[in-house]
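hi! just following up on the protien thing from before. the input was this:
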Amino acid sequence: MSKHLPPLTPSQKNDLEKAKKYAMEQSIKDVLLKQSIRHQQNQLTTSQGAAQKQRALAIMCRVYVGSIYYDIKQDMVREAFTPFGPIKSIDMSYDPITQKHKGYCFIDYELPEAAHLATEQMQSATLAVGRTIKVGRPSNIGQAQPIIEQLAHEAQHFNRIYVASIHPELEENDLRSVFEAFGKIINCQMDRDAVSRRHRGYAFIEYETNQSSTDAITSMNMFDLGGQFLRVGKAITPPNTHYEMYGPPSNHSSSALPAAAAVAAAAVTSKIMAQEAAKPVSLRNSALSGPMIPAPGVMIPPPGIVMPQPTAVMAADQAGVVTAAHNFLFYLLLLSFSFFPCCRLPTTTLLILCGVGSYNLFCVYNSQAPHCRHQSPPQLHQRPSSNHQQIN
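and the predicted 3d structure came back as:
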């Protein structure tokens, strides 16, 4: 004769439902926390990559100018280097005693192509008094070198040229009509001022073939167009790179999961985790090992014949019956009741929960429990005044 635990009272059932609800809430909070940490890590990785690219582009926009005569002012340097593209700033170091510059400066362009073109065409040039200047790139490239090489490699897939020192009165159609003589133009892009809507003196032209871009650079560099000498060179960055440098910052928060979707996803995840934890060990092992092979002496029923299930399996199908499927939840609740005073239940309820979990653990996993493995499920006691089911 098998022994049974007494049925739960309405108060104990109410406390058990509260405990289940609390455990589900904690599970959802845990899943939401993991999702938030993962999203923050992805954002950090993306922002770090964008910051490294920005530093590399800033280095590509910088030009070093040395051997500058001491009487040459900053305005003269700006006038000599402006034809290659818009200048963002000029950093000229001055001596605190003589109040004269130290003979060198750094020019920061807005575009890498402008700095590259100035380095190529101003090397060994003369300023004012006939003194030859030295122009080069900064030596402190460091970790930016791989990114610079990657940008240059990507730029080789496009037949783009950079055209600077364009007359203010010329428009895109005028420029296109001149450069179409070297080949078919795929795109002609002139950057314009946000307020005046006038072009800023430079343009990017993309040809269909590499030979067309090479011929345009050779023929149109230093060509007098409208009274200004054009400066033409190869584009060293992929398209839209300068828009990434000075365009509006992207809104990373827009890619975050909405709050309602995050809560729903967390609830589904916690439900699946609970179902996986509720599966009997034999079913989980069979799912991993493949089809089960019956042991010697075990009869396999013919098709259409349903064999009675063990008690542990049948009990899991009965509504309101606590089985080993809930053991993980029981002990999680007991642990939470120990650390959270606001969730503590009466001592009697805790003892009942502990006893239920221990009994089911013994019933399912102990191979010596005959009524749990081979006997048919025990019949429920019928009570006229109560509809509560007994706990198996």
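DSSP finds 13 helices and twelve strands in the chain.
Residues 248-255, 309-326, 364-392 have pLDDT under 50 and may be disordered.
cheers
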